[in-house]
Design goal:
Layout: H1 15-54, H2 61-73, H3 77-89, H4 101-107, H5 113-126, H6 130-140, E1 169-175, E2 178-184, E3 187-190, H7 194-198, E4 204-207, E5 213-215, E6 226-236, E7 239-247, E8 250-258, E9 261-262, H8 269-283, E10 285-295, E11 301-309, E12 323-324, H9 325-331, E13 336-337, H10 340-343
Parallel strand pairs: 8-11
Antiparallel strand pairs: 1-2, 1-4, 2-3, 4-5, 6-7, 6-10, 7-8, 9-13, 10-11, 11-12
Length: 350
């Protein structure tokens, strides 16, 4: 490309002319660069998707192909993943010529194709900045409408074996030479009087609403440290703040990290996608059960989280099948598996 020479005839005379000329030149250059980026990413996604579709009879071929390409081309696999997602969301992107790559990256995760196209058309027509598009998206789209296009993470992770006990069961332990009910989370209920004579260490009991204790002879250690819970807030994809019923009418609030997995940081688009995925599942949940493991190296308790979704309006229809949140994140590509050797034994994975 020939470079235009600056001559006395076409050089800016005043500061106002300089400012205007630089603004136009920078804008046009940046616009051309972004247009080229959009076109390049879209074509890359098209090549990947068409190749994968031609080999769809081979299990996990798409994830393996992206990993192999990333290694061979020495490029971050997340770039190839975004290209693939972009092409799937917008097979014909030129319909919205005023949108930048940042616009398309914001729109691509929207699950509803009609909503996705409508927002693209609106943003293109009004020439919205990305921040305006994000504001509009938050108003129109509930959490469950976004980020259901899974983020490939390479080899499909091995799913976890759920740790699922029964709420309301507690072991009898010895504390300071006296027997007590272990409520979990370093909380104990000392036994006094007749209660201390009726039960022995390692018995498993159930606490009744009137605070009486009943022996649970058929229960085992696998049934322990499981609680009915209420969500307080979602911190990120793998961390929740939960109110737990440690005994009838006694609640404590705990920050729990999901066992066996790791979600991207919230500073990344993938991390925010994982959080929206969890928000969407919990928005349709009518009951939560938590089974806890020992604290990790940050003194957080690890948790297996089970969600009971409603299958009809306001739970009027029979409840749908229980969702094991840990495996839902892994299976949908929003987390990677983390085992004891990844963090050290003090993480307490089982």
């Amino acid at each position: 490309m020939a470079t235009r020479a600056i001559t006395p005839a076409n050089s800016p005379k005043s500061y106002a002319e300089l400012r205007a000329a630089v603004k136009v030149t920078l804008f046009q250059g940046q616009r051309a660069a972004d247009h080229a980026k959009v076109r390049t990413y879209h074509e890359t996604g098209r090549l990947i998707r068409h190749h994968v579709l031609a080999n769809q009879d081979r299990a996990d071929y798409g994830a393996k192909t992206i990993l192999r390409l990333a290694a061979d081309l020495q490029i971050d696999r997340s770039v190839l993943q975004r290209c693939d997602k972009f092409y799937r969301a917008f097979p014909i992107w030129a319909t919205w010529p005023k949108l930048t790559w940042a616009h398309f990256r914001t729109l691509s995760p929207i699950a509803d194709p009609k909503l996705r196209r409508a927002l693209a058309t609106e943003a293109n027509h009004h020439e919205w900045a990305v921040v305006q598009l994000e504001h509009r998206l938050r108003k129109l789209a509930p959490p469950e409408a976004t980020e259901v296009i899974a983020i490939p993470t390479g080899e499909p992770p091995a799913l976890l074996k759920p740790i699922r006990g029964a709420p309301g069961l507690h072991p009898i332990v010895e504390r300071g030479g006296e027997l007590a009910v272990d409520l979990g989370f370093k909380l104990c209920w000392p036994l006094t009087g007749e209660q201390s004579k009726r039960f022995a260490r390692d018995d498993i009991v159930r606490i009744s609403p009137d605070d009486s204790l009943r022996l649970a002879p058929d229960a085992s250690k696998a049934d322990l440290f499981t609680y009915s819970a209420t969500l307080r807030r979602v911190v990120d994809g793998d961390t929740l703040v939960i109110a737990l019923a440690v005994s009838p009418g006694v609640f404590i609030e705990q920050k729990l990290r999901l066992r066996g997995l790791d979600c991207p940081e919230m500073s990344t688009p993938e991390g925010r996608a994982a959080k929206r995925f969890v928000d969407a599942l919990l928005a349709k949940t009518i009951a939560i059960v938590i089974s806890t493991s020992k604290p990790d190296k940050y003194d957080r308790y690890l948790a297996d989280v089970f969600l009971q979704p409603a299958s009809g309006p306001r739970g009027q229809l029979p409840a749908a099948e229980e969702v094991f949140l840990n495996n839902a994140l892994l299976a949908n590509g929003y987390a990677v598996r983390k085992d004891p050797e990844d963090f050290g034994d003090d993480w307490g994975f089982k």
